Amino acid sequence: MRFLITGGAGFVGSNMADRLLRDGHEVVVYDNFTTGMRRFLASAMENERFRLAEGDILDRPALTRAMAGCDFVFHFAANADIRNNLDHPDFVFEQNARGTFQVLEAMRAAGVRRIAFSSTGSVYGEPEVFPTPETCPFPVQTSLYAASKAYGEGMITSYCGGYGFTGYIFRFVSLLGERYPHGHVFDFVKRLKENPASLQILGDGHQRKSYLYIGDCLDAILTVIGQDDPGVHIYNLGTDEYCEVRDSASWIAARMGLQPEFTFTGGKRGWVGDSPFIYLDTAKIRSTGWKPRLTIRQAVERTVDYLTENPWLLEARK
User: Fold this and answer.
1) Interval 279-312: pLDDT, tens
2) Cβ contacts of residue 29 below 8 Å, gap of 6+?
3) In angstroms, rounded to a whole number, what is the distance separating the alpha carbons of residues 115 and 100?
4) Cβ distance 102 to 60 under 8 Å?
5) DSSP annotation of 98
6) In angstroms, how far is the first alpha carbon of the chain from the final one?
7) Cβ-contact 112, 71 below 8 angstroms
8) What angle, 0 to 180 degrees and rounded to 10, lies between the N-to-C axes of helices 11-22 and 214-225?
9) Do 256 and 230 touch, CB atoms closer than 8 A?
10) How far apart are CA 126 and CA 99, in angstroms?
11) Residues 6+ apart with CB under 8 A from 253
């Protein structure tokens, strides 16, 4: 098959590109390199079944040309700066909401009818049911990032109903692993390298979060899309455990051989819109036979190892 990956030079997209190429597929990566890293594509660029199309998802004609002859679209391009999204709401809307619309319209023009979309467990807001199933009603959104992803989900389901698309919507917990470019593990490693004696943690450190290793995430996605069923398919992707942020901080410090003093900014949330408890019900994806290989702690430690071995990435993200 020939796959197009929007945001293919990013964390999830570049890992997916390498996986698909190893499986013998053709891959077109479409990225504007606003946040994507060319170094993430170094291996893919050596493969004759790979093509890079540099462009913005808001440029529908260019995106449509890049999709020519493709069988399937992975739509991973997004502004994922969740913590600071209130500082640039226009950018969140353009890249995440309007960008998804442009992807769908480009697909319609290019005759591509199958799409997988990276959504987020944050669309559930602050639910009352844990672990939270796919059938949980959506709350009033308090995160611009989650609201933009909910918009994308709505557009995809509408195109599936109106134009006969097949859509796979994956609501991720936070992902960890090789090429991890932002988030709390990245921030903690970077700050501990700058000051090994002390680490400030946003909130009270008791925020409970679930995480998933990138390799396990890709396994789950490829398991589902291989079934090729028509219609809309929504899956939570995560582990059957969670940890507190202060636990994760302790694992990171220990992996780095450090014993810093932790300080806390206070409150139940790290920032406006931060859900203090994210824990998804993954029974649906597990019914396919998939299960994660790594625990949360193992995923955290593998991420720390990658960042330690690749200091260029820490320097690239100022």
Assistant:
1) 999 999 999 999 999 999 999 999 999 999 999 9
2) 4, 5, 8, 9, 13, 14, 17, 41, 44, 50, 51, 52, 53
3) 11
4) yes
5) I
6) 38
7) yes
8) 60
9) no
10) 26
11) 188, 192, 199, 259, 260
Is 163 a residue of the active site?
A: no
Three-class SS of residue 197? coil
At 236-286, the pLDDT tens digits run 999 999 999 999 999 999 999 999 999 999 999 998 888 899 999 999 999
* CA dihedral for 238, 242, 245, 247, sign (positive or negative): negative
Rg of the Cα atoms in the chain: 19
Q: Which amino acid is at 127?
A: P
Could you tell me which of 249, 239, 246 has the C-alpha nearest to residue 278?
Answer: 239
Which token pair is 213? 């290793």
Amino acid at 226: G
Which amino acid belongs to residue 246? R
- The single residue of 145, 159, 235, 242 carrying the catalytic annotation is 145
Angle at 76 between CA 297 and CA 5, to 5 degrees: 120
CB atoms within 10 A of CB 97: 19
- What amino acid is encoded at 241 in this protein? E
Residue identified by tokens 């992902």 is 175
Pairing of strands 243-244, 208-209: antiparallel
